[in-house]
Amino acid sequence: MVTTIPETVTDRAGRQLTIHRAWPRQGGRLIFEASDSDGGQIRAGSVGADGRVRLSPFAEDPVLSGLPGAAAQGELLVHRYKRRAVVRDAVGFTKLLAPGKADEVAASHRFMRSLAQPSGIVVPDVVVHHPESVTLTAVHGASFHELGQASPPANHPAAPPTHRVAEETWAAAWQEWSKRWPLLAVSQHSAAAGAAELPTHGTRDECRTVSRWVNYAQEFGVLPVAADRLQRASAHVSRLLISGAPQTAVLSHRDLHDKQLLFNPESGSVGLIDCDTVTVAEPALDLANLLVHIDLRRAQGVYSAAAARTAKKAILGTASVMDVSEVRLNAYAASTKLRLACLYAFRPAYRSVAHQWFERLEHELTESAVA
Q1: 3-state DSSP assignment of residue 11
Q2: Is the Cβ–Cβ distance between 234 and 209 less than 8 Å?
Q3: Which of 148, 109, 145, 153 is nearest to 127 (CA)?
């Protein structure tokens, strides 16, 4: 029996909630995050292998014991049932984590912050660190994701001054990022310190990550694609990753995308958040992840073609400055595309986008094999 992801659920009070993302768990189970139709409050829950839906009361979690108190003092932004939650309050952002995770997250943020300072990239500071939570300072600015939405297409009916400011801010954000990112990634201290203190993420690790998501997509049937096609695409991506010679590893965020980057137009500063997974990896890993997310935003209808071109030009230019070969960038881009197709298939609003994304990737892989 395949566990399906419902698009909506109803709580005991009769309020309807929309599920916007879900995550697969072992044993055919799912956990999900939803928002109610009244005030947009975040709610979490699970779907058992038997299909039974369990919706948690607001800000309650049997594993995240500090969540009710934190949510009472701020705004609950993220709640991944029995895994993690994020609350915004007057101090900054508090991450409530499963037991045993807080030390690692705090250490990752402190390490990234220390290496980021010479580059000028602003990373949150750890304010409070408890066994099951980490509180971080806020980084001033708007996310690149928000800025991209504000940058209208060329034929947008916005008044010319408004249009110009949005375009100039978007271009300035990417210009500043492209100047600063190589300084962070190839920090003088990153290779030596990272090798001693940070985990590594090599090509084999990337292959395992992609394979895991492909297997999830197959197990839960979230993509209307035959199992052999999914596995064939996974094998093709693995060959691309392993066949090329890996480049020298650098400091890596490992989840770099447009929602993780912020820009402050007043100071011109670039911020980087959610450094939970900092590692040492090929520079193509982060750059490809960021590049592919720009294409994904276009597919989602978030960015205009002009906005996407500006971003991609900056990312490709940065790859050139960092001597990232086209072969390695393409290999990691294929890996990212396949992983995102599987991941977004677990988000009801984007199932069709995920399917189209996989079909396009499959065609690209076939074409490259023929060539």
Answers
A1: coil
A2: no
A3: 109
* Element (DSSP H or E) covering residue 22: strand 16-24
57, 34 in Cβ contact below 8 A? Answer: no
Domain coordinates in residue numbering, the chain = 142-370
As a whole number of angstroms, the distance between CA 189 and CA 113 comes to 12
142-370: CATH number: 3.90.1200.10
State pLDDT tens for residues 124-150: 999 999 999 999 999 999 999 999 987
Q: How far apart are CA 66 and CA 162, in angstroms?
A: 44
Please tell me what DSSP assigns to residue 123: -
- Considering the entire predicted model, what is its pTM? 0.93
Under a CB-based contact definition with an 8 Å cutoff, are residues 33 and 77 in contact? no
- Report pLDDT digits (tens) over 155-199: 555 545 555 668 899 999 999 999 999 999 987 555 445 445 788
360/109 Cα distance (integer angstroms): 36
> What DSSP designation does 254 have?
S
Q: Which long-range contacts (CB under 8 A, 24 or more apart) does 32-39 make?
A: 32/5, 32/81, 33/78, 33/79, 33/80, 33/81, 34/8, 34/9, 36/11
